[in-house]
Specification:
179 residues, alpha/beta, Rossmann fold, four-stranded antiparallel sheet, 10 strands, globular
Length: 179
């Protein structure tokens, strides 16, 4: 794992190695394959941050499924704006389907709450949530996060799809703000 890295005006230190992430992804995939084996779920991948997690996860999901993408924004720099802007919408008919929301990180839950509200309006059968990371100290919503890779403290992280102003998504490991 690399040492301290600098992205724009911030320094980040190594936090979670890719091998640890891979084990967490394997665990989530096994649970999904077991629990949703009698379903035909639609995986709703939240872009941009979830692209790496979704790619790794869905390669290991062995049940029949569909994959779709939605793009929302609730961050600016290192802080959540508290509002969600839907940029690209869902076009598939998901009525009476099991939907698995695929998130990179569940932090405050603002994005997740908005997505669940939109999905409930489309008469889905059930909603499941899979997240690579969860910040339990920050998350105060009542929506269950069914599949959690790794729980972390309320710290700003980048890498493995997570970014700081669009940078750092391509890092295979996860880094935490060093200052």
């Amino acid at each position: 794992m690399e040492q301290i890295i600098t992205i724009k005006d911030k320094k980040f230190k190594p936090f979670i190695e890719d091998s640890v992430i891979a084990k967490a992804v394997d665990s989530i995939a096994q649970k999904i394959n077991s629990e949703l084996s009698h379903e035909f779920p639609v995986f709703l991948v939240v872009l941009n941050g979830s692209f790496m997690f979704a790619s790794d996860l869905l390669k290991k999901v062995s049940i029949p499924c569909e994959i779709s993408f939605i793009k929302v924004a609730s961050y600016h720099g290192t802080t959540s704006t508290g509002s969600v802007t839907e940029l690209i919408g869902l076009t598939e008919n998901i009525a009476n389907r099991t939907v698995v929301i695929v998130e990179d990180i569940v932090d405050t839950g603002v994005t997740l709450e908005k997505l669940v509200s939109v999905l409930k309006g489309k008469n889905v059968k059930q909603i499941k949530v899979a997240s690579a990371l969860l910040k339990p100290e920050s998350y105060k919503k009542d929506i269950a996060v069914d599949y959690v890779g790794i729980e972390i403290k309320n710290e700003f992280v980048i890498g493995y799809g997570l970014d700081y102003d669009g940078l750092g998504r391509n890092l295979k490991d996860i880094y935490v703000l060093a200052e």
